[in-house]
Write a structure and sequence with these properties.
Blueprint: E1 3-12, E2 15-21, E3 26-31, H1 34-45, E4 50-53, H2 58-71, H3 88-97, E5 106-107, H4 108-114, H5 121-129, E6 142-143, H6 156-171
Parallel strand pairs: 1-4, 5-6
Antiparallel strand pairs: 1-2, 2-3
Amino acid sequence: MIEKLFISNYNCALGNLTIAATSQGICMIEFDNQTRIENHLKQLKQFFNYEIIDQSNELIDIASTQLSEYLNGSRKIFDFPFLLHGTDFQTKVWNELLTISYGTIRSYKEQALAIGNLKAIRAIATANGQNRISIVIPCHRIIGSDGSLTGYGGELWRKKFLLELESNQAKLF
């Protein structure tokens, strides 16, 4: 069966985001990087057969609203449905990212300890980089053990922006 994959753009302080959703949930929020978007779409093709519909749907509208609320500081948690499609390891890494509270950072080493595999630091970094649902699955909250902002598919300036946004908002509560 062919699934409809709705795709729409959302413009914000971070630039253009491409948001994709099926009828079941959001499956991609990606920054303005055509190569990453194409790679994500190829990866999603492994999980379901889709036809791209170049328009928004109700879930994309909800995600766009919640992203606006997040970026203006009035939302800390996203509650729209999203789909995690990946290997068992990737899904484990992404689910662990979801446990990191708003305004909190963790090192790759701490993330490895949290999933019970200290030897998997590099694999975790790779899985974080393959996250298709940016911001919502908060891989931006992972930093180097020395406190440096390392690796981020959305570019380091966006990671810094997101961490500063969360840090400033967390201080207000």
